[in-house]
Amino acid sequence: MPHVLLIEDDDLIRHALTVALERLGHRVVGASTGVEGITRALQDGVDIIVLDLGLPDLDGMQVLKMLRASLAIPVVIATARDEEAHTVAALNLGADDYVIKPFSAEHLQARMTAVLRRTRPDPVRPPLRVGGLLIDLHAHAASLDEQVLELRPKEFALLSYLAERAGRMVSKAELRAEVWQNAFGVTDKTVDVHLSWLRRRLGESAASPRYLHTVRGVGVKLNAPRV
Length: 227
What we know:
The chain is an alpha/beta fold. It has a 5-stranded parallel beta sheet with strand order 2-1-3-4-5, sandwiched between helices. Helix 6 packs across helix 8. The chain is elongated, with a radius of gyration of 25 Å. The chain has helices at 11-23, 34-43, 60-70, 84-92, 105-119, 153-164, 172-178, 188-201; strands spanning 3-7, 27-31, 48-51, 75-79, 97-100, 128-130, 133-136, 141-144, 147-148, 212-215, 219-222. It contains 8 helices and 11 strands.
């Protein structure tokens, strides 16, 4: 869970949000003024800032400008100002999202998660290895016994999804949902066709499987061949 800096001058709101976010697993540090908030942002190593605009010493827009001048930490504006002009101005100044009070801690957490998903770099994931299969997710490349596999994008996505779950039976419904995102027109037959193509790339068949093992009516499983 991210470490949250909550810049909010209303003691009751700040306390209630702090308790609620901590119950959701966050670490939370609070500030009641703009100056205190900027200081904590510079010193406390937080992951994301929730900023109220109605502060007693500085206007929240000024605080946002000052934060953006020196930090790349994501900022979610949380305010009662619901005019479109305020939203546009805050986003133009570099806010990553704008939430209008009142809202629940769960709603705020969902907004923060979405912001962090957009702003954090993807972690470097090591290549997947299953037997002689090597799949580099970042390079979008795969090889079998050190021979490059020429895969279409959806074949690569299907192989990667199964390799990440090697040894587990995966249903066609799950593949439709996760690999095809339940796209219109995608059926079990679509999955079967792509599995057939993938088997050919791997030099095997449904009758003589090495890596891809299908159980009729259950799903498919990727396993390393037995020695």
